[in-house]
Fold this sequence. Notes:
This protein has 261 residues and is mostly helical.
Amino acid sequence: TLSTQTDYRDGEAQTDPYSPEYVVPSGSVPELLTLATLTWGRGLPAGLAEVEMIERAREKRAWEATLPAMDNASQIVKRRKMMNDMERKEWAFREQEIEKLQEVQLEVLKKLLWRREKNQNELDAKRLDDHWQNYQKAKEEKVKKIQHDCALMLRKLIAKRKNVMGKLERRDIIKEYTDFASQTYAPLSRIGYFPDNHSERYVVKNFYLNTFAGLCELEASLPDSVTQVKIKAPKPKYTTTETGFVKRSARLEVDLAQVHQ
Length: 261
């Protein structure tokens, strides 16, 4: 009927399963003591491998019980033969375990090699992609430069063709001022004109804006309607109709005013 609250969660308070103390009577060998090497996390809870180990231990104890006593020479020879057979079986079993372990290690090695090859392939693909991007960028820059040089040479050829006979053309001022793309309106930097130079000559310098006396004179010249604002009160709207009813818009304005208050 009561409950407790601790400062630790279950994972921090969890311990290994409890193993009580035991006493072994003299003359008895409990089978459970043969499993004393198994502890929690190291063989427990038992899996298929642990069960097979327990069965082999039982078979070996049963085999040891069937060994003949060493009374005479014939029994000794029989006992030695049985022990040699059992030793061969144990070595064969050990070899099978070694082969299984080697197969597991081989599978792990294959996975590691496959993962390394996959990572190497990804790295090679990335490097090839980077090289491809660099070559594409160099190609685009080269093509752009060729196009620029081509346009430059075409302009030079067109200019030479205009003056193919070596005659100089006179300046047509009217044509220049009618064409807004001419040197008069849009001079080019490549012919020696830089519009950013001497930009201070475009700054507006005004006496009325840069000096206090000019501002006072400018303010005195302004009419009174600029400095003295006159606000006319709005005329009230007709809220009733000719027949004496209140308009819907007027009623809505009254409701809005009440809500606002």
